[in-house]
Design goal:
- By secondary structure, this protein is mainly α.
- It contains 36 helices and no strands.
- The C terminus is likely disordered.
């Protein structure tokens, strides 16, 4: 029985110069592809557009020349094996339906074709065209051809088929690529995109699989949109003059972008353009499938990822297309919204558009699971945690997702310079030196302050040494806002940046750095169950404790919180066996270390053995201040400080004078009237301090001064390797016990510390400035204003009754039985 559609189709191909053949798909694949190339259809991408455009009616009548050309393209595509046979027939069916719907009979159709002959590029003007038209007309008039009436009857009983865009399960995601070129069929192959290799190299600097994957991951996680989003957010908060100043400050190459962005703001256009990144993600994933750089399932996973992100952000295709148009406008530096209708009408309105399905639900959520897992697998190694955290400060790092690659020599040099100049960290110290930047005690301190602030239990602002500055006090009191957020992120994000610089220096052991990165991941997963909780905590702590001299990172962090593609949402969040990048001191150790007070920087971590470079400076300090030259001498002196110390000298040589003021006055007078040696001069000054009870030296237990020195020297000894860990702990335990037996709390300890410092200070013109500086430091340590001055305000004094509130989370040091761990 005759196949009416094939017969009709074959007859129409005669009008295109074909020899009549009942099977319109009988041309050899090689000849069909050659013919498609001649018709400027080099690949299936262009074919998709040509077929879709052929049915773009756009008015009362369809373009007959375009419809006829599309019939030829469908036949050639089917013969070339670019379309499956049923796809080619489906297109022919639709095209035939449009022809019959817009022309009352064959004569009208042929007359329309004759009038359209001059339409360049559609109907060739060869001499055989007129004869072919006459022959077809004669066939119908003689009753031997396919009559218009029969064709109409056939169409009436054969419903128009679904034009077969990819529609099986997850393949629906490929419809997102239609903005660049419709995907006609799967799998992808070299005939889908002519010149794609050259395009990737020239436009994207992509030269292979790894390059491509990095760009795909970047488009999903950050793309161009992040910089635009941050600019727009900042500009919204500025007045017209400030916006103009921002524009004037742009480099010449950025002015067109700046002008377009300001135009969007002035017009009240939605400041959203993520589709620009996410649709390009689909396009590049398709390119990888075409080239075989990505396996089909890998490419599809990226397309599904884009669909996932798109469905989070956009309600329908029109919103998606408009977001893309805004992004393209910013990228090209010209407002293209005026051409939106013309640019997108075909996809948004054509009855055959691949977008004739709802955007929401384009891909069922049950199909997304494997794609989501694939996206996490690309970022599965702990290095991506370091990248994510460090990229908040340095967004360029986001382009380095995927497989790790060596950095440029310039980047290596910059990283080594940063480590040396900002951290005093050198490769010869080894990976172990990075432990000094992991500060768990700092997190404990901040969490405790936040808990106390939330319960109104912070120490009084008034101290025996003065009152903190109002701004510092306000900053401390504001910590109540952070009581629900673990503070580890406040120090961990800086640690991650240092770790990234160590990676980039390529001067440290790679396996050692990877282990630290894994420890960082484990720590953050322990304290934060997901990206949202981590980023909310980071925003909170950063706004309360911004880095000195630097603007807050709140806008950047919030962007990552709100953007569904941000790398943070696609990291490997899991809680395994937990270990940290550095040791977590016990609470008693932290308390004992804090006895050093303002003599040293706050002890936010346990001391460790330093490099020989650092050891030189430490030995010079030990020698210059205490004339100690060996481990044995230092240990002996530590025992002296803990057993008797400077306080013994006061008790033996000066305390008795407090009971005999006459003798004290006589001794002072004798020394004042004669020539004094340096030793006698020191003795005179101390007698005068006893006489005046300067800084309460006669009323205060001075052991605090000995304890502070002992702990300070023990830390130095540990850094020099002169004390093993167990011996160091014993020193801390002894100091802890002595403090508990001599003082009731930190305020009393601070009085003893200050009195001892004042009493035993040698003669110096800077005495008053030294004492003023110490008083200021003691105010800060006692009041926690500013919060990171020192930890006394967050710690129970040795042996004192508990007074602090337990934080609401487990980000604390072990050792306090009232806390859950």
């Amino acid at each position: 029985m005759i196949d009416l559609l094939n017969a009709w189709w074959a007859q129409q191909l005669v009008l295109c110069g074909w020899a009549f053949d009942p099977d319109p798909l009988s041309v050899s694949p090689e000849d069909a592809r050659e013919r498609l190339s001649t018709l400027a259809v080099p690949d299936r991408g262009e074919l998709g557009w040509r077929l879709l455009e052929s049915l773009d009616i756009g008015g009362a009548d369809a373009d007959p020349a375009r419809l006829l050309a599309a019939l030829e393209l469908a036949a050639l595509a089917g013969a070339a094996e670019w379309l499956e046979r049923n796809q080619a027939r489906a297109w022919a069916h639709w095209l035939t339906g449009e022809i019959v719907a817009h022309h009352r009979d064959l004569d009208a159709w042929l007359e329309a074709l004759r009038r359209a002959r001059s339409a360049e590029g559609w109907v060739r003007g060869d001499d055989g065209f007129a004869e072919a038209c006459d022959a077809l007309a004669a066939l119908e008039h003689e009753g031997d051809g396919i009559t218009w009436e029969r064709l109409g009857e056939w169409l009436a009983v054969h419903d128009r088929p679904e034009v077969l865009w990819p529609s099986d399960g997850g393949a629906m995601a490929w419809r997102l690529r239609a903005g660049f070129a419709p995907v006609l069929t799967l799998p992808a192959g070299e005939h889908d995109w002519a010149g794609v290799t050259e395009w990737l190299a020239e436009d994207w600097q992509v030269h292979g699989r790894d390059d491509l994957v990095r760009v795909l991951l970047w488009l999903g996680a950050q793309g161009d949109r992040q910089g635009w989003d941050l600019d727009a957010t900042r500009l919204l908060a500025l007045d017209l003059d400030a916006r103009r100043a921002w524009y004037e400050g742009l480099e010449a190459g950025e002015r067109r972008y700046g002008r377009t962005l300001l135009m969007f703001l002035e017009q009240g256009e939605p400041l959203e353009w993520a589709a620009w990144d996410w649709l390009r993600l689909v396009d590049l994933a398709w390119s990888g499938a075409c080239l075989g750089w990505l396996q089909d399932e890998e490419a599809l996973a990226f397309a599904l990822h884009a669909a996932d992100l798109v469905q989070h952000r956009y309600s329908d295709w029109s919103a998606l297309a408009r977001g893309f148009q805004r992004g393209r406008s910013l990228f090209e530096g010209r407002n293209l919204l005026g051409s939106f209708e013309a640019d997108w009408r075909l996809l948004l309105q054509s009855p055959l558009s691949p977008w004739r399905v709802p955007l929401q639900g384009l891909v069922d959520d049950t199909l997304m699971g494997s794609a989501r897992e694939a996206m996490r697998c690309w970022r599965a190694d702990a290095r991506h945690w370091v990248l994510a955290l460090a990229s908040v400060r340095e967004p360029e790092l986001a382009v380095r997702q995927g497989a790790s690659v060596p950095v440029t020599s310039a980047r290596r040099a910059d990283a080594r310079s940063y480590l040396a100049e900002h951290l005093d960290l050198y490769p010869d110290e080894g990976v172990e030196a990075l432990v000094r930047y992991w500060l768990p005690a700092e997190a404990h301190h901040l969490n405790q302050l936040a808990a106390d602030a939330a319960h109104g239990a912070l120490p009084p602002a008034e101290t025996p040494f003065g009152r903190p500055e109002p701004d510092a006090l306000a900053q401390r009191n504001a910590l109540r806002q952070a009581s629900r957020h673990a503070a580890t992120i406040h120090m961990a994000e800086k640690y991650a940046f240092y770790l990234q610089m160590a990676f980039d220096s390529e001067a440290f052991d790679a396996e050692g750095l990877a282990a630290l990165a894994e420890a960082l991941r484990g720590s953050l997963c322990r304290f934060y169950p997901d990206a949202r909780r981590l980023l909310e905590a980071w925003i909170c702590w950063d706004s309360l404790l911004p880095e000195e001299g630097q603007p807050t990172l709140a806008l950047e962090i919030r962007w990552h919180l709100e953007d569904p593609g941000s790398l943070f949402h696609w990291l490997d969040w899991r809680v395994d066996e937990w270990h940290e990048p550095g040791p977590r001191p016990r609470l008693s150790q932290f308390t004992a270390l804090s006895l050093v007070g303002p003599l040293n920087s706050p002890p936010w971590s346990l001391p460790h053995r330093e490099s020989e470079r650092e050891a030189v400076a430490i030995r010079e300090w030990v020698d210059g201040h205490y004339a100690l030259h060996s481990a044995e001498e230092l240990v002996e002196f530590l025992n002296f400080l803990l057993e008797s110390g400077d306080r013994q000298e006061y008790q033996i040589n000066y305390a008795p004078y407090t009971l005999n003021t006459t003798r004290l006055a006589s001794e002072i007078a004798t020394l004042e009237t004669g020539e004094c040696s340096e030793e006698e001069r020191t003795h005179l000054l101390r007698l005068q301090r006893v006489r005046d009870n300067e800084d309460g030296c006669n009323d205060t237990d001075l052991i605090a001064w000995d304890l502070a020195q002992a702990v300070d020297l023990a830390v130095a000894a540990r850094q020099l390797g002169w004390l093993e860990a167990a011996d160091f702990d014993r020193v801390l335990e002894r100091a802890h016990g002595l403090a508990a037996s001599h003082y009731s709390g930190w305020e009393a300890y601070a009085r003893g510390f200050y009195a001892g410092f004042s009493f035993f200070m040698g003669e110096t013109p800077e005495r008053e400035s030294f004492l003023a500086g110490l008083r200021q430091a003691l105010v800060a340590w006692l009041s926690a204003a500013p919060p990171l001055a020192g930890p006394w305000a967050s710690l129970e004094f040795p042996g004192a009754r508990p007074r602090h509130w337990a934080p609401m989370h487990i980000d604390t040091l072990p050792g306090d039985s009232r806390l859950l761990h």
